[in-house]
Design a protein that fits this description.
3 domains; Helicase, Ruva Protein, domain 3; 5-stranded parallel sheet; alpha/beta; 508 residues; Rossmann fold; Arc Repressor Mutant, subunit A; 3-stranded antiparallel sheet
């Protein structure tokens, strides 16, 4: 920012500021004006926010244009804090203040007694400082131990005694974080956790423009934009929000999780740490499996949906999968950095630490639920790329009517009929088994999978555009999907797994 006559590094007195024709604006006018300028120029003011273009962002922009305090209501991991922290980009780059004023007073409209006295004493020679917009943002996490002194302020008896002033004098007040945010943005996270008596203090600042400290009222028309964040369940059901405060929050904006897989993948690519010495490429279908874990968890009856499933789950899961691949490459220098299905098991800690379970889920156990979520994701994505494992009876009847149903194996008698997977299932039902160890070399891994009849042909037929490494992954992916629908059994071994016939596994 520059003024009409002098650059800001040359404006150091009140006289120079007046001569520069700098104009005072409230924080809300400033945000509104700068947003209007951005919108006219077509310049985005938010970065790194995906999936909110048609939902949340327009609501925030209309709130700013309306000069509203607002609250973002959403479950954890929905970018609420990231959004409010970027509001500073809508502020002027620099703002003039009276030097050493406790409330960052506007030189043309001083509020605090020290600033008013400085202007009375020095007149046009009053020293001016410039504050960068990054310093005009303050944030506080609401916790039960937050006090009025933290938020509003308290009387400083030592200062009163030293300067021989009355305790009711405004000069004796040590201001808290809210008054010190004057002419800036103040964000309070998890609003419902704030004690009601402190909410009353915020209410006075928002509406009556005064503060009361230990019974001493002080009228200070602070210039603030207040933003809040909260969990919808806590905000509407806990009952810790005093009604007058809720009524005075001008706009209530609901956030949400990514609504499409593409948005979710974009966010995870953007946020996950992937800077490894050996570049590791994750195929699109592996990315989809990782993202699908969160989508499946958000629909699971085992998971407490009121707590939400954070977008951090697939972000951390992707990092763990990459590290699992990296670890295998480090322990086997001849290994190609390609994913295997076992790498998805490495994502387990990212799941167990981020889903809160209902009673039924607790009875199952966190690890079992997490494995079920991962398994369900593997199957769900597999069904996008390959033919359905089961053929509906209606489709079988249609084929029979055209004389196309000439198979006679035992699967034809079941309610649903396996289609492209008969030879694979026959291998296991006739006593075949496949053991895969985690420490297998790439050649051993490929050879073991190729020993299952028709498995390689299935992948080549429906996954022909994939690389050799991706097709090898898909071979185990197919076996895991057959296990997920209970057509073959999978046993966990020390350092590996074993696929076998389901009935034989049950009898054993």
């Amino acid at each position: 920012m520059t003024t009409k006559s002098l650059p800001i590094d040359k404006i150091r007195t009140l006289r120079q500021l007046r001569e520069s024709h700098w104009r005072s604006r409230s924080i809300r006018e400033e945000l509104r004006d700068n947003l209007i300028s951005r919108l006219k120029q077509g310049k985005p003011w938010l970065t790194g926010i995906v999936g909110y273009e048609e939902s949340v962002i327009p609501q925030i922009e209309t709130a700013i244009l309306s000069r509203h305090n607002f609250i973002l209501l959403g479950l954890r991991g929905q970018a609420k804090t990231r959004i409010v922290r970027q509001l500073t980009d809508l502020l002027d780059e620099y703002m003039p203040v009276v030097s050493e004023s406790p409330l960052r007073d506007d030189p043309l409209r001083p509020l605090s007694p020290p600033a008013q006295r400085a202007i009375e004493d020095h007149g046009d020679d009053t020293p001016i400082e410039w504050v960068h917009r990054s310093e005009r943002y303050h944030e506080k996490l609401a916790t039960p131990d937050v006090t009025i002194a933290d938020m509003i302020g308290d009387i400083d008896p030592i200062k009163a005694a030293r300067e021989k002033i009355d305790l009711g004098d405004p000069e004796a007040i040590h201001f808290g974080i809210v008054p010190r945010s004057n002419r800036g943005l103040f964000v309070l996270n998890e609003l419902p956790d704030l004690q009601p008596r402190i909410q009353v203090g915020l209410l006075n600042i928002m509406e009556e423009k005064d503060i009361q400290i230990r019974g001493f009222p002080l009228r200070i028309p602070l210039d603030l934009l207040l933003c809040f964040t909260a969990n919808p369940e806590d905000y509407t059901n806990r009952g810790n929000i005093i009604t007058p405060l809720k009524d005075r929050i001008d706009s209530q904006i609901l956030t949400h999780y990514p609504r499409t897989l593409d948005d979710s993948i974009t966010i995870t690519r953007q946020e996950a740490w992937t800077d490894r010495p050996t570049p590791i490429h994750l195929p699109r279908f592996v990315e989809e499996i990782i993202e699908e874990i969160a989508f499946v968890a958000r629909e699971s009856d085992y998971v407490d949906q009121a707590s939400g499933v954070s977008q951090r789950l697939p972000i951390r899961a992707r990092e763990l999968v990459l590290s699992s691949i990296e670890r295998r490459v480090l322990t086997n220098t001849d290994e190609h950095p390609a994913p295997r299905l076992v790498d998805l098991a490495a994502a387990l800690p990212a799941v167990t630490g981020r889903v809160e379970l209902v009673y039924e889920g607790e009875q199952e156990g966190p690890s079992i639920v997490a494995n079920k979520l991962i398994g369900r994701s593997i199957l769900k994505v597999f069904q996008r790329y390959f033919p359905p494992i089961y053929e509906p009876r209606a489709e079988r009847s249609k084929r029979a009517s055209f004389g196309l149903d000439d198979t006679g194996d035992s699967f034809e008698k079941s309610e649903t009929v396996p289609s492209d997977y008969r030879d694979i299932l026959s291998f296991f039902s006739s006593g075949g088994a496949l053991e895969l160890r985690d420490d297998m070399s790439r050649v051993e891994y490929e050879t073991a999978l190729a020993s299952v009849p028709s498995l390689k042909e299935l992948i080549e037929r429906h996954f022909s555009d994939a690389t050799t490494a991706e097709q090898t992954f898909a071979m185990e992916w197919a076996l895991e999907s057959l296990h997920q629908v209970s057509l073959i059994a999978k046993q966990s071994l020390d350092g590996g797994i074993r696929f076998a016939d389901m009935l034989a596994d049950m009898l054993s």
